[in-house]
Amino acid sequence: MEKIVVSGGAPLFGQVEISGSKNAALPIIYACVLVKGKCVLENIPDVSDIRTSFEILRGIGAEVRMLSRGVWELDCTNVEAGRSDYELVRKIRGSYYLLGSEFGRFGRARVGFPGGCNFGVRPIDQHIKGFEALGGTVSTEGGYVEIESESGARGANIFFDLSSVGATLNVMIAAATADGVTVIDNAAREPHVVDCANFLNTCGAQISGAGSDVIKIKGVKELHGCTYAIIPDMIEAGSFMVAAVATRGSVRINNVIPKHLESVTAKLIECGAEVEEFDDAVMVTTPGSIRRTSVKTLPYPGFPTDMHPQMAALLCTAEGVSYINESVFENRFRYVEELRRMGARIKVDGRVLVIEGGAPLSPAPVIATDLRGGVAVMIAALTAKGVTEISEIRLIERGYDDICGKLRSLGADIKKVVLPDEAILPRVN
Ligand code: UD1
């Protein structure tokens, strides 16, 4: 059993390097299944969701090897459909991209239901609607999603009922080698959708419009291998920006695409922080006190739902009453109880968080309830004078590459400790 121990109360200062985007790397790794040949992927973050994905692919016959830190070679020439390990697949959300890539390459797929953070119901009806439009017959039985087709995926027009990152990527992957043209309307516009389209195009696909809400995919017969560098992780970068302001520090965040951070930058400026943009870095400083604000999470380019918990931790330290309206997921508030343990005055009113800021947070034993919620309590702990212990840290390590080392390099007093299992009493709810 591992814990993170934070002795908080000091501002963060210095520079930090951002890793590659987990949510871009995941679809790209699974899209390699479409390729007969070697793909070299650079800027792959060292996080457990990616390690699990490599295990899943090895299990279906892929050759996966690390060439150097962050650089991986994948050869999916000999993969087979329908063989993925149920237990591994259910550990993460991104494994659902195997549905699109098996269907695209083999005309059939069989993959267990995905896992991922618990934000209430997370349906995959839009993915299924897309696969059916491409000519698949989809069944969901015994914990598996199965796609069958007479003669492989066929191009089609698809109008999604809502903006879904996962469904857009899954259908785009399946359509890349489908017979004919696919048009996805009401597509998600997130940078990771664009990155996956760029990767597939580098392999010979013909995809246009990614980044807008209409994506056109002309199916090609075959894709070839390539070398491709994943974009920087905008959520990791945003988390460090918020941590810098929450601790009233001053941090230069390197290896970012400032455009991807605009909604976070705008909110931090509204709260009284200063953000200077460079070509591939942002400098965040906190000249005075931090003010309240209102935030509504939205699909890109709106404020990302994956930055909501971190922003809540920051707003606990701001003067006045702030509001966060979570419009993407129905229940992403499990971490709120942990912030309350640290003295935060927050209440949940339907899908709106009401945060009465201004009172200093205090240390308490807390848990990471999910990936971003875990980082929110870590940010809260960095602001609280005294020692906070965070358990269930494997949830944080699903998506943050060496977060303790990076925070230490900014002057934080933070360490990971390994304890015998019996040293941690289970929390009884
Ligand atoms: C991805 C990200 C996650 C991020 C989210 C929104 C990965 C691995 N995960 O999750 O970190 O928080 O985008 O930016 O990249 N929905 C449906 N039916 C569907 C699909 C989605 O109703 O078939 C709903 C969801 O319940 C949610 C909304 O649509 O309310 C958006 O979800 P979606 O964009 O699909 O999120 P994920 O792909 O699961």
In percent terms, what proportion of residues is strand?
15-25%
The figure for the number of domains is 2
Give the end-to-end Cα distance, rounded to a whole number of Å: 20 Å
CA-based gyration radius: 21 Å
At CATH level 2, the architecture of the largest domain is Alpha-beta prism
Summed up, the helix count is: 14
CATH class descriptor name of the largest domain? Alpha Beta
Low-confidence stretches: none
Number of strands: 23
Helix content: 25-40%
Task: Give your account of this protein's structure.
The protein is α+β, with helices and mostly antiparallel strands and 429 residues long. It folds into two domains: 2-19 and 232-423, Enolpyruvate transferase domain (UDP-n-acetylglucosamine1-carboxyvinyl-transferase, Chain); 22-229, Enolpyruvate transferase domain (UDP-n-acetylglucosamine1-carboxyvinyl-transferase, Chain). Helices cover 30% and strands 25% of the residues. It contains 14 helices and 23 strands. It has helices at 22-31, 48-59, 86-89, 97-106, 125-133, 165-176, 191-202, 234-246, 262-270, 308-315, 336-341, 371-383, 394-397, 403-409; strands at 2-8, 13-17, 38-42, 63-68, 71-75, 109-112, 137-141, 144-148, 157-159, 181-185, 206-208, 214-218, 227-229, 250-254, 274-277, 281-285, 294-296, 321-325, 345-349, 352-356, 366-367, 386-391, 413-418. It has a four-stranded mixed β-sheet. It has a four-stranded mixed β-sheet with strand order 2-14-16-15. Helix 4 packs parallel to helix 6 (165-176) and helix 6 runs parallel beside helix 7. It starts with a strand and ends in an 11-residue tail after the last strand. The model has no long low-confidence stretch (mean pLDDT 96). Bound molecules: uridine-diphosphate-N-acetylglucosamine. Uridine-diphosphate-N-acetylglucosamine binds at residues 23, 26, 93-94, 122-127, 162, 164-167, 188, 305-306, 328-329.
